[in-house]
Each structure stands twice: as structure tokens, then as C-alpha cells.
Amino acid sequence: MLEFLPLVLSGVTLTISLALTSVVVAIVCGLIGAAMKLSSVGILRILGGTYTTVVRGIPDLVLMLLVFFGGQILINSIGDKTGLWTYVEVSPFWAGSLSIGFIFGAYMTETFRGAFLAVPNGQIEAAKAVGLAPRRYLLRVVWPQMVPHALPNFTNNWLVLMKTTALVSIIGLQDVVYNANQAGRTSQEPLTFLVLTFFIFLGLTLLSDIGLRKIGRVYAIREN
Hints:
single chain; mainly alpha; MetI-like fold; 8 helices
């Protein structure tokens, strides 16, 4: 194990980078999706509902492979027809990040929508009454009250997202799972490195849970 330990640990940094990039994409998609589902415009509500329904019904691996292979074919087809570029190779990192973020954006949509609806409508009406611009009352009034309501579901989504990053090993990204699998095959001790991977993900999960709980306590203090 000591011989291959640096190889496995080198994948941890990539796994964390992938998870953080994916969650940023998921937050952006979730906020946009929540805004669409809460919109007074009917077509936007339909698009938001379609997004959450369709994405949550597609297996994560299938969508990731569609982005990785289908996206590459689509981009290169456009390049061939327009002559704007010759050949573009989709990076496994960005294919994984965008697909995971897009998938979990659907779950974040419901998280943010529910948190927004939990904010008393009177708070928003009062902010409007004193003349606050939409951007200011969203940041100063709505957001601080949304976070405590959103954090429990956000925490669950983040923990599942982090485990989902293991799927990127299928498309050749050298994350902790990929490297552990390679180390297990080379050393002919796959179980040893699977157990090591188990404890790495467990450690990341525990650290994430502790950090998000602290953030939750900070917002709870502010709210009180």
C-alpha cells in the first residue's frame, strides 16, 4: 500500500476539485431553476418543471456519457459545418463537472424553491414597502432567511454529489477511484485499495458535514 499510496492520494485533490466545481454549477443551475419555477411567466415555470422532472429521471452515468461523447460529437459537427474550428476534445474533468452540476442543479432547484417559499411573504412586502430594490432585498432580506431552510437539503445534496464524482472514473478521469483501481490491479490487492477509498470518502463526508453544520449554526445565531 505504501508504494501506491501517493498515486491514490493524488486523486483526492482532483476529486475535491471536481466536487467543488460541480457544486458551483449545481448552485447556479439550482438558482436559475428555482427562479423559473417561481416565476409568474407560464413558459418559464414549464421549462423549470421540465428541467427538474427530466434530469431527475435520467441515470447520472447515462447523462455523463451523453455529455462526454455526445457533446464532443455535437461540438465537432458544428465546427465542421461552420469552419470555425477543426477538432475539439471535451475534457473529462469538464464533462464530469458540467454533467454532475447539471444533474444536481435539478435537486438544488427544489431545495432553493422550498427555502424561498419558507420565507414569510410579509418580510418581502415590507422590504418593497421601504423602497429596497429587488437585488438589495433579495441579498439583505431573503437570502439570509433562505439559507437556514436550505442548508439541510443542501448538505444532503452535497454529500451525494461528492459520492457521485466516483462515476468520472468511467470516462478516464484519474480521480481517487480510478487511481485506487489502477493501484489494486497492479498490486493484485484490489480489496485493500477499495477499503482505502472507502475511508477517504468517509473522511471527506465527515469533514463536509462538520463544516456545513458550523455554517448552519452561524446563520441560526444571526437569525436569532
